[in-house]
Input
Amino acid sequence: MHSSSPSSVTANGSDSKKQRLDESPPSRVLHIRKLPNEVSETEVIALGLPFGKVTNILMLKGKNQAFLELGTEEAAITMVNYYIAVTPQVRNTPVFIQYSNHKELKTDSALNQRAQAVLQAVSAVQDGSSPSSDTGVLDLAPPPSPVLRIIIDNMFYPVTLDVLQQIFSKFGTVMKIITFTKNNQFQALLQFSDPVNAQQAKLSLDGQNIYNSCCTLRIDFSKLVSLNVKYNNDKSRDYTRPDLPAGDGDSGSKDHSSLLGTPSGALASYSSGGGYSSSLSLSQGGGAISPLSAAAAAAAAAGRVALSGSGVSGVLLASNLNDEMVTPQSLFTLFGVYGDVQRVKILYNKKDSALIQLSDGNQAQLAMSHLNGQKVFGKVMRVTLSKHQTVALPREGLDDQLLTKDFSGSPLHRFKKPGSKNFQNIFPPSATLHLSNIPEGVTEEDLHLLFSNNGGTVKAFKFFQDHKMALIQMSSAEEAIQGLMDLHNYDMGANHHLKVSFSKSTI
Output
């Protein structure tokens, strides 16, 4: 007999469901197996919502399983009995539901914060009412309107009308979208065919990031119940009326999403049903899309680069460099903020230019969009995609000037580990640097001195509570770039190497 504890469960769906149900006595905790990849908490909670209040959830993403705790054992029994007659499905995939051996779920609140936030949102919609004992069924508060007002915070990358349509059409038919800028913030009004779809989209997406750690969605119901769209262009669209004019000198309703590449390209997973959740940074695991590629796609949507999916070369050409100062190591450190640099070659006949090879085209796009036009060693650096597919290493003994360096085995790659925290901390160069891995006993004065020694001026400084991390503000982004190149991985003693990255904060 298999217990249904996370460690010993077997997910071989061949045995009959009935037989498995008999193995554990009824419990208000249910064990759900065979979930599709990249499923979100909201979708799992939705299985239990019709039967009563859902009080806790634990997702086992790697095992495609989840535990769902209902408010009462009766609600759980009703749910299990119902799903014996009707096969439960998530994303058109049959899933298996059985009683768990656990009588309640104890979850680590720090690890489970997202799930708790989703539960709170669901509870709020349930209007604070408790399950009625006779039916065990809850009515959600009726949604006020099919129109959502969407505000986008932390908009480091442009968000287009097409990107919004791709994300929100997950929840139902999107009929109309109007985008505009108000109080220096990008906003949109989006109308679904049905208010219930608007409610589901708001529940699932409010507070989520479109791209990794930026472009946060803030969603409310609009007071309008219908939108009036006059033109089909890149600012407004009525999907029910393709005959509308484009307005003054606009490009018409051409499909901007073609900039987002082929199905192998970054944002295709929104429309492929294969896991918008990872695009929305709900999971950092190896989902349908890497966060870096979403960011690269965003840069492409802005028209900065034409992204042709994953076929883009991972090699960049940096030019107008200060040939007296630049080294392969300094370029490795700077470009390494945005991707894992494999090789760097300073050109023998043109020492103000260098080729930088990153792990893939998406990392190259991201580095280019952030570093092109930045001042490095006193000169404005130009960064473009190279026509080279790789950077060749010189033959043994021929590189006497040490212009080429292979970094493929470097322990300093920031993005080697899937789901690394570094994916959430990719910011454009700014005057403020984030320092971490500071050993005990190092004072503010020590760090002031360290960052002033390379010619910079420290404007402000702030330790985090535990003194292992700090923010340090230089007088310009150029000085911060210099500080990062010089001092990232600096040996602070006590077996601590300083970690330096750009911060989005100011002090």
